[in-house]
Amino acid sequence: MQFDNELTRLLGVRYPIIQGAVGWKGSGTSSIAVPVSEAGGLGILTALAYENPDEFQDDIRNAMKKTNKPLAVNFTLIKSRQLDVDYYKKYIKIALDEGIKIAFTSAYNGFEIGKEFQEAGGCWIQKCATIRHAISISKKGADAIVIVGLEGTGFKSPEQNTTMINMTAARQYIKVPLIAAGGIGDARGFIGALAMGASGVYMGTAFMATKEFKVDERLKTRIINQNIMDAEYCKKIYNQKRGVSPSLAVGVIHSIPTVKEFIENIINDAQKIMEQFKEWRMFIED
Ligand SMILES: Cc1cc2nc3c(=O)[nH]c(=O)nc-3n(C[C@H](O)[C@H](O)[C@H](O)COP(=O)(O)O)c2cc1C
To answer: What is the pLDDT of residues 232-270, one digit of tens each?
Structure first.
């Protein structure tokens, strides 16, 4: 299956599949980012996953030895934890000096960081939790915007919507490529997101359940065994205020493949879904 859309062109990747930022120390590093980029998606090195800027620099160098495919960095801005532009200054300089061209920012507005990457010939993508934030970020000049739905991992607010509403509604107001996040973990979620107006998908939980993700294996086992019909679990995810739990994407995650297998499965299954659409004569014939 071939992809050539505004997002694959912006990022220089084969598939519009992005590995979400992971701020857990030792997890959101080259160990997951490199296999994702090598498999045709986009891997993200999350600055928060490192103890200090030197470790970040060493790992970027290590990553670049292992892949010549595009890689991105994430800066998660949390004012209450003094994770602001000043905190990231050294990390930003290192990323740019080492030749990383794609910056993702999340939580607060990452305009200042984004501008530095854009001025250096790269691009800036902001992750937002609400359509209102996404509209305001699009006016600040982001090259693309991730919107995370309520189904996803992370902070929840009453202003948040589901992934489906985010994509279908935001598309009316925002012209830059939109990237869907929240509860996506298989080909149906992927193709569905594209149909709703996204140019690509961004997944966190699904990549946690891959062989390469560095986390206690017991958590991976919990992900694949989690019953999505458990009301307590759904309640927990929708009400989550802090911390990080695997999202409602667990409903479609039943095995622990390698990253390559996971991405290939999505692409192959997506192809089958598209063929089924043809059988259903959902496309106008010539
Ligand atoms: C273990 C884990 C850690 C995460 N850490 C961060 C982080 O530090 N910064 C951030 O912006 N998002 C973080 N996220 C959120 C993901 O980048 C992404 O937005 C989210 O996982 C999408 O929803 P999904 O899990 O349903 O795919 C984390 C997600 C997971 C699963």
So the answer is: 888 888 888 777 889 999 999 999 999 999 999 999 999
Q: Give the pair of three-digit tokens for residue 275.
A: 């063929």
Q: Work out the angle at residue 150's Cα, subtended by the Cα atoms of residues 149 and 152, and round it to the nearest 5 degrees.
A: 75
CATH of the domain at 10: 3.20.20.70
List pocket residues of ligand 1, CB cut-off 6 Å. 20-24, 46, 48, 76, 106, 127, 148, 151-154, 181-184, 203-206, 208, 244, 247, 249
Q: How far apart are CA 191 and CA 188, in angstroms?
A: 5
Confidence check: pLDDT of 285 > 80: no
Contact 264, 272 (CB under 8 A): no
> Is the distance from CB of 143 to CB of 123 less than 8 angstroms?
yes
Domain span at residue 49 reads 6-279
Residue with tokens 């209450």: 80
